[in-house]
Predict the structure.
Amino acid sequence: MPNACVVGLQWGDEGKGKIIDILTDEYDIIVRYQGGGNAGHTVVVNGAKFVLHLIPSGILHPNKKCVIGNGVAIDPALFLEEVEELRKRNISVENNLFVSDRAHLVFPYHKLLDQLSESEKGQEKIGTTGKGIGPCYADKMARVGIRVVELYHPEHLERLIQRNVEEKNRLLQGLYNAAPLSWKEIYEEYRAYADRMAPYVCDTVGYINEAIKASKRILFEGAQGSLLDVDLGTYPFITSSNATACGAASGAGVSPKQIHKIYGVMKAYTTRVGGGPFPTEAEGALGEHLRERGGEFGATTGRPRRCGWFDAVAVKYAVMINGVDEAILTKLDVLDDQETVKICVGYKCNGKIYERFPPDLAILSASGGCEPIYEEVPGWRQDTSHCTSLQELPSMAINYIQYLEEILDIKITMISVGQDRRQIVRPDSVSSARLSTNLPSYRDR
Ligand code: GDP
Ligand code: IMO
Ligand code: MG
C-alpha cells in the first residue's frame, strides 16, 4: 500500500495534524491538496506546539519532503509568515518544501469579500474563517483566478490584477459601500512575494508523479472535514473545496489509481466551528465541559468550537463517501471523566427515523425538529492519557472503541489519548481485546 490519504470524518479539527505527523514516518512525501489558510493543524512534540495552516504537517520530520499542491488556495503572505516562523524555530524548510505553480492565489480582495459577504448574511452567515477561501475558489471556477505561475510573468500578472481589482471594486463600492482597493499596490505587493516564494515554487505535479514512478511513498493530507466538503457536506455550511479523499487526485495532480489507502480521522465526540446544523450539539454544561477539557478553541481563529456527542450517522456517511480503510480515533482522553458516553445512531424528525445522513438541513437541525437517537455505554472514569498499548486502556474504553468499530463497520487502528506525538495507542487488533472485557457486542445488545 504505497500511497495513502488522511481525511477528517467530521466537521474538521479531528486531530489530523497530529496523526499526519505520526504517519509521516512511513512516507517520503507529504502533500496538502485542498483548502488554504482556513486550516489549522496542530502538532505537539515534546511539549512544543506547532500550528500549521498551509504547510503540510510532515514538515517537522527533517528527512521528508512536503508539497503544497495545486488544489490549495495559497495566501502568499501567510505562507511566508509560516515559513519564517518555522525557520525561527529551527525547522528546516530548505530543499524540502515545494509549492505548486498551478495553485491559485488568495488576494486581499478575496479576504475582504469573504468578510463583507459574511457580515451581510446576518443570521444565515456561514461563520467562515475570513481567509478568503470561498471567493478565491469562486474565481478559480469562474476562470478569473490568478495562479502562482502568473507571479513570474509580470506583465500578464499586472493585467490580471488590474482587471480583477477593477471588477471587485465595483462590487466593493456598489454592493458593500466599501472603499476601493488599489490594483497598483496589490501588484507591487505580489511582485515582492514572487521573489520571496521563488525558491519553493515548482511543477509539483511532475515532481509527485516522478516520485511515484521512483517508488516513493506519498501521504496526501486532507484539510477540513468530510462534512465540510463542497459537494458532499452540509451545504451551504461548508468550505469551498473537496475535503474528502476525492479531492486528493485533482488537488495533487495524480491519478485516483495512485491513492491506495484512506485513513479517516475522527474525534471521540463531535465538534463544529461556525454555523450550520449539528444534530448532537450539547449547548449546556456538557458542551462547555467538553470545550474546556478538549481545548476546543479554533486553531486558526481562536473561536470556541461547538461540542457534542459522537454522531455515528454522520461519520458512517463520511466513511462511505471516502471509502475509509482504517479509522483513527482521537481525543479519547477528553471523555475520561464521563459516567456514561452517548453515541447518536439515528435522527428522529417529525415522527420519521433517519439512519442515513440526509442532505436536508431541516432534518438535521434542532429548529426543524431533529432529535438525535442515542445509545449509551458506560464511561471508564480513569485517566487514559498515559496509555500506549491496548492492554493499558480501561476495559470500558475498549468497549466504547469496539462499539464504534461495530456501528461504523470499520477498523480503528490508532487511538490518540493526548496532544503529544507520543500519546498514541496502535493496537494490532481491537476486536481481540473484546474477549477480555466480557461485554456484549453492539450487535448482540
Ligand atoms: P486538525 O485541524 O484536524 O489538525 O485538528 P486541530 O489541530 O485543529 O485540533 C485538534 C486539537 O486537539 C489540537 O489542539 C490538538 O493538539 C489536540 N489533540 C489532538 N489529538 C488529541 C488527543 O488525543 N487528546 C487531546 N486531549 N488533544 C488532542
Ligand atoms: P481544519 O483543517 C474546522 C469551517 C469554518 C466555516 C466553514 C467555511 O483545521 O480541520 P471557510 O473559511 O473555509 O470558508 O469557512 O468551514 N472551517 C473549518 N472548521 N476546521 C477547519 O480546518 C476548517 N476550515 C474551515 O469554520 O464554518
Ligand atoms: Mg484544525
